[in-house]
Amino acid sequence: GRTSESLLDLSEPFEKSPLKNKSGCARRMVALSARELEIQGLLVLEHGEIVAEYSAIGEDVRLPIWSCTKTFTAVLLGVLIKDGYLSLEETLGEIFDYDPYDAIWGGIPDAESRKELTVKSILTMTAGLSLPDDWLSDFMWPFDWGVFGGSSLVDSLGYHKLDPSRTNTYEYVWGGNLLSYIIVERAGMSPREFAELKVFPLLGITKSDYDWQHNLDGISYAWHGIFATTTVLAKLGMLYLQHGLANANDTIVDEAFVLDSTKGTVRNHKYGYGWFLFREEGVDPVYPERATRYYTGGLGATGVVIDEDLGRVTAVVSNNYLPEELTEYVSLQLEEIVNDPECTFLEE
To answer: What is the DSSP letter of 301?
Structure first.
């Protein structure tokens, strides 16, 4: 983690470096972003200061961050763990184990196998779950008041296909709301309400900075559904760079949770708790099994990249509706700059 002297108070706005947009790397990233229609916002922080910034639509515009929502949901699980309300080893059967849940389980296929799924297996995509064959028709519903990933607790518990033979095998799943209902059960409120109580104030995130859409049940989606500004994504990145500390006095999630988030699993060393891991490029010398470079990403180029060794956070929001060949091109170009260890933002 960072020393108390170097910690930012994440409830405050980021300060801008005198070298903002002056380094060669910053100028390259800004020029690339301005040239391509896809990139709508870019923010690079080094040691907590803005060293590169670009906005095509205004800093306050919220865009869908898609699967980056997974990482915000992971943070909320970390809060429940820190406060003693949840363990990652708990199973769905243990969490939903009392009336009226007895009746609910009776109508769910493969109920006994699903009851054995742990929170950790769902979080790390190693539960043997996959999307149903008709998921695309669900996805085409309106985002708000939609059905993708499960429209209710019962629907969410049985929404995915389950292959018990693939338990402990990594398979990335775009949508699902099981974790939302675990938060509801243990926090007594929706993920959005819980975030507004426990997380967002400490990160300086106000209701004008984001929206979190929900299913037909009125429960926030777990693995997609947040619309946010580039700054919101950067705040998420800084929270992990500071190993769970919002400031010198306030802990949002324990450091142990952040470290575990970036270790991966026995069967998959490239994905943790909502983070993809750059294991070849950065390994923590104190915790050699974890990565020190990791990212969360949504459709298009939207995402957050963290490099703990450089003290760098890169956040991008993008237009998610351009042809894939265009989005892939831009993403690769920006990734090349972000991943270049020789690229510095602190020299003109």
So the answer is: T
* Cα gap 248→340, rounded to integer Å: 31
- The Cα 239–Cα 96 span in angstroms is 31
pLDDT digits (tens, 9 = 90+) for 23-75: 999 999 999 888 877 889 999 999 999 999 999 987 788 999 999 999 999 99
Query: What digits encode the pLDDT tens for the residues 164-184?
Result: 999 888 999 999 999 999 999
**Residue 208 three-state SS:** coil
> Distance between CA atoms of 12 and 201, rounded to whole angstroms?
10
Q: Which long-range contacts (CB under 8 A, 24 or more apart) does 21-24 make?
A: 21/51, 21/52, 21/53, 22/348, 23/51, 23/52, 23/344, 23/345, 23/346, 23/347, 23/348, 24/343
Q: How far apart are the first and last CA of the chain?
A: 29
Residue type, 16: K
Output the DSSP codes for 6-24: T---TTSPPEEPTTTTTSH
- Helix, strand or coil for residue 237? helix
64 token code pair = 């869908």
- For residue 197, the model assigns a pLDDT of 98
Q: Which residues contact 17 (CB under 8 A, 6 or more apart)?
A: 46, 49, 50, 51, 345, 346
Distance separating alpha carbons of residues 81 and 84, to the nearest angstrom: 5
Q: Per the structure block, which two tokens stand in for 65?
A: 């961050």
Any residues with CB less than 8 A from the CB of 123 and at least 6 apart, and which? Answer: 74, 77, 88, 179, 273, 274
